[in-house]
Structure formats: C-alpha cells, structure tokens
Write a structure and sequence with these properties.
Blueprint: E1 4-8, H1 14-25, E2 29-33, H2 44-47, E3 55-58, E4 63-66, H3 68-79, H4 90-120, H5 126-148, H6 162-171, H7 174-177, H8 191-201, H9 204-219, H10 239-247
Parallel strand pairs: 1-2
Antiparallel strand pairs: 1-3, 3-4
Helix pairs in contact: 1-3, 1-6, 1-9, 4-5, 4-6, 5-8
C-alpha cells in the first residue's frame, strides 16, 4: 500500500482528526505540512479550491478529497475492512454518522467561533463571547448527558469508534474556547466527558499525533498558540493582527 498524503497546517485541530484515524488504522501516510499563510495559494488550492485543510491524496485509489468529515467517512469505508472503528448493523452505522455530523456542525463551528471572539477578533464583543462560550458548554452538556446515561464509555456501542476519535482534537482545545477556565480545570464540570477524553488522549496513537504536531510546529518556527517565534514585525501586536495580515495576502516576517 502506498502512503496517503495528508495536507495540513500544524496548529489547527481539524487535520489531526484525519491523522489520528490513520494512526489507529495503521494506514501508511505522509504529511504535507504547509504554512498558514499558504493555504489560499497554489499548490494548496489545486488540491482544495476552498483553501482549507485537511485534504488527502490517496494514490491507491487516485482520489483527492477534502473536508475532514468526508475524509473520515472515506477512510473508514476504504480501509477499516475489519470494522475496528465502526460497526456493521444498520442502527449503529447511522448512529456513528449522526455523531460525526454533530461534531462537524456543532462542536467544530462553535468551538472555533468561540475561540475567534475570545482571542482573534480585533475588538472585544462581550455579547458574542457570551453567546459562543454558552454554545460550547451546551455541546459539552450534550456529551455529558449521553455518556452519563447507563455509564457509557463510548459514544456508540461498546468500543471506541471513529465517532469518538473525531471529537478529540477540538475537545483538547476547550481551555482556549471557554473564558476563565484554566487548563487543569477545563472539563471539571463534565466528569463523564473528562473521563472519556482521558481514555482517548491516553492512547499511543494520540500521543504520536501530538509528538508529530510539536515537531511540525517547531519546523515552522511556531509557538503552541500558532504565533511565529521571534520579535513581532511592525503592525503586529496580537494574533488577530497576524491573521489579518495573512488574510490580506501579506506574510509578516518575525525576527528570530
């Protein structure tokens, strides 16, 4: 089997859903790590015209695919032939798909928007911050209630599946999308979610993902928050300034 190429930018959560899945399945892959400033440029837009990561190129099927949910569905269908991370019954298959769609439509957008208004928006908008942090806690509450019922350990059935896996990268950023919640306490209000999250992040496959992320971040000269290391150039005083310049087609140079 030839390795699947995964296009990603190291800081963002979405691509790590794909890498996490490939690690769990033991499918060979290679990473094409690009800088945030290059996602709207060639060759990235030749792979994904939307200029977003992740995207994959699978030489085994000659398929190029983007959108993390679609990629997960494809990888499971094509490579989880032993049903390690899925089920075969009608109800279970659709319940897995249900939780994947909830992650794509609920968790990812709300967590990301909350993080934007807390950290990146040029002005502080308390009403927006309040709106989206409440949505984050609402989504966590849905997870908490589901896992608490009958002492569930996993989202569907009696084993870890791709549905559980898809939620982890964004869930691992909760401390950055909830106001005033320090890192060690980020899931204390949701004990069942906290226990489930620990089961997931204790897996060797997740540790390998985070080790790879740290190496790729270092290769690009990035700090854990995604900002380049070094002295900020003129006109850049915050991450929102940096994002605005990148969105405007500039590439701020940080002095090392």
């Amino acid at each position: 089997m030839q390795p699947i190429r995964v296009w990603l930018t190291p800081p963002g959560p979405n691509a790590w859903k794909v890498v996490f899945l490939l690690e769990e399945l033991g499918v060979p892959y290679e990473v094409k790590s690009i800088r945030f400033a290059d996602v709207k440029k060639r060759p990235m837009i030749d792979v994904n015209p939307n200029g977003r990561v992740p995207a994959i190129e699978d030489p085994n099927t000659n398929l190029t695919l983007w959108e993390s949910g679609a990629i997960i569905t494809y990888l499971i269908e094509q490579y989880d032939t032993r049903h390690t991370l899925t089920y075969t019954s009608l109800a279970d298959r659709h319940h897995l798909n249900q939780w994947l769609h909830f992650q794509m439509s609920g968790q990812g957008p709300y967590y990301g928007t909350s993080g934007w208004f807390i950290h990146l928006h040029p002005e502080t908008l308390p009403s927006a911050i309040d709106r989206y942090t409440k949505q984050v806690t609402r989504v966590l509450g849905v997870l908490e209630g589901w896992l608490a019922e009958d002492g569930r350990e996993w989202l569907v059935g009696d084993k870890m599946t791709y549905a559980d896996l898809a939620w982890v990268p964004w869930n691992d950023r909760v401390d950055t999308v909830l106001v005033g919640v320090p890192e060690p306490e980020k899931l204390d209000a949701f004990p069942n979610v906290k226990a489930w999250h620990k089961r997931m992040t204790s897996r060797a496959s997740w540790r390998r993902c985070m080790e790879l992320r740290a190496r790729l971040m270092d290769e690009q000269g990035l700090m854990p928050n995604g900002m380049p290391k070094g002295t900020m150039p003129e006109g850049v005083t915050s991450y929102s300034d940096y994002v605005a310049k990148v969105d405007a087609g500039e590439d701020p140079v940080f002095q090392q």
